[in-house]
TrEMBL record:
It comes from [Ruminococcus] torques. Keywords: Coiled coil, Kinase, Transferase. The keyword Cell membrane does not apply. It comes from the Bacteria. This is GTP pyrophosphokinase YwaC. The keyword RNA-binding does not apply. PANTHER family: GTP PYROPHOSPHOKINASE YJBM, GTP PYROPHOSPHOKINASE YWAC. One of its GO terms (biological process) is guanosine tetraphosphate biosynthetic process.
């Protein structure tokens, strides 16, 4: 790296730093001035998470009763942290108002459903979306169309009601459905991505390596699914 390039980089870092800290102040002021509405907003997102999690637990329970098998391995939920909410507001240039945040940021409430097999994902998604109080806003099928990184999952942005004493309020929730293999890959890739010490000349090699791992994990899902299908066929025959 030349001296000029290095200086440019340092200057950019400095500008980023100044911009971030300025906006941080603005954000802190906003939170302080709107402490109650901000807390209420976050509490509503938490309530919507509980509603969505229950919906998946009910579907899983019913499936278990019917087929003696649980299609959901685990469910993880989270409300977006203030820090990452701020980063997104800044990145997307969203005005600092509760309405603008609710309207433009769709992943404040996050529910991740980890399934055993790939076809469980589509079955569960269909049952969930068929419910008359779940409104689909956006569907991204990164299983049929993986991201350039190799990332796979089915993403649903939905609106679902929470019931307050004044009546119902529709809340946006991001649901990510994945298999164990998809979750394994995504969790490790997420961890690796934040390692700052990766040398730049290795980054292409590392991206290719992660893509290769994603393909292996996808092949694994397919083989596991096939094994499951063979077993299910055998069970059906036995019942006949
Ligand atoms: P965000 O603004 O980051 O939420 O992205 P987006 O609005 O383009 O939505 P997208 O559906 O692409 O991704 C949303 C979420 O999916 C992220 O917050 C991650 O949880 C997950 N995700 C997407 N791409 C990747 C990836 O390449 N690796 C990993 N580990 N997770 C990913
Ligand atoms: Mg996100």
């Amino acid at each position: 790296m030349g001296r000029r390039e290095l200086e440019e980089r340092i200057e950019k870092r400095r500008e980023d730093f100044v911009r971030n800290s300025l906006l941080s102040d603005e954000f802190i002021d906003f939170v302080q001035e709107n402490l109650k509405p901000v807390n209420t907003m976050m509490a509503y997102y938490q309530c919507a998470i509980m509603e969505v999690e229950t919906k998946f637990k009910v579907l899983s329970e019913q499936h278990s009763l019917e087929y003696d098998r649980n299609p959901i391995e685990s469910i993880k939920t989270r409300v977006k942290s203030m820090e990452s909410l701020l980063k997104k507001i800044r990145r997307k240039n969203i005005p600092l108002t509760i309405d603008a945040i609710e309207e433009n940021i769709q992943d404040i409430a996050g529910v991740r459903v980890i399934c055993a097999f790939q076809d469980d994902i589509y079955k569960l998604a269909k049952c969930f979306l068929d419910q008359d109080d779940v409104i689909l806003i956006q569907k991204k099928d990164y299983i049929a169309n993986p991201k350039p990184s190799g990332y796979r999952s089915l993403h649903l942005i939905v609106k679902t009601p929470i019931f307050l004493k004044e009546g119902k309020k529709m809340i946006t929730v991001e649901v990510q459905l994945r298999t164990i293999a998809m979750d394994f890959w995504a969790s490790l890739e997420h961890k690796l991505r934040y390692k700052k010490s990766i040398p730049e000349d290795q980054s292409k090699y590392l991206a290719e390596e992660m893509m290769d791992c994603a393909q292996i994990s996808s092949a694994l899902d397919e083989r596991m699914q096939k094994v499951r299908d063979v077993i299910m066929q055998a069970e059906k025959k036995e019942e006949e």
